[in-house]
């Protein structure tokens, strides 16, 4: 498993891993995931900006897997596409895990905006070489993750501002990654004043049927 620690890479110091790193060698089939939350943890090492910081995750349960984001992707809300990676080896915050999307937990966030969580398996781990979809995993894996987010929502009570819509397959997961890449590119061009650079048909908006 390839690992790159941000703190140990002087070329990336003072830069945003979210904006500077590649989304992967062959997205959406394979993506890079920058780890922010470790399996069993309750703290997020926020690595999206140029100045990382530690923040608590208000959950009664520990995270069921490593969790991070795909560089150069984002939702319309401005947050990167989040990915849960099923790792067995211990990683560390800032570790880059090449992974294969296999499913997506569909979540509707505040203001009716999507906040889905992509499920992925690490590349290069023999245990997951044959895993191409969630159907190749034991049923309890998806059940555990669903239970985690359901419990998280219940713990927030009336302040919970998201709705869990259920699981989508590997094709839906890859569409989410592509959507995130297009939205990021659109925002990047907008910030640079280069919307005219967008090619016809490159509109990042997805129809409800595609999600």
Task: Give a description of the structure.
The protein is α+β, with helices and mostly antiparallel strands and 211 residues long. The chain has a single domain, classed as Inorganic pyrophosphatase (Inorganic Pyrophosphatase, Alpha-Beta Complex), CATH 3.90.80. It has helices at 17-20, 139-156, 170-191; strands spanning 31-37, 43-46, 53-56, 66-69, 82-85, 96-108, 117-122, 163-168. The strands form two sheets. The protein has a five-stranded mixed beta barrel. The chain is globular, with a radius of gyration of 17 Å. The two termini are 31 Å apart. Mean pLDDT is 83; it is low at 1-11 and 195-211.
Question: How are the SSEs ordered, and which strands pair?
Answer:
Blueprint: H1 17-20, E1 31-37, E2 43-46, E3 53-56, E4 66-69, E5 82-85, E6 96-108, E7 117-122, H2 139-156, E8 163-168, H3 170-191
Parallel strand pairs: 5-7
Antiparallel strand pairs: 1-4, 1-6, 2-3, 4-5, 6-7, 6-8
Could you give a quick summary of the protein structure above?
This protein is 21% helix and 23% strand. The chain has 211 residues and is of the alpha+beta class. The protein has one domain: Inorganic pyrophosphatase (Inorganic Pyrophosphatase, Alpha-Beta Complex), CATH 3.90.80.10.
Question: Which descriptors apply to this entry?
Answer:
single chain, 211 residues, alpha+beta, Inorganic Pyrophosphatase, 5-stranded mixed barrel, two-stranded antiparallel ribbon, 3 helices, globular, disordered N terminus, disordered C terminus
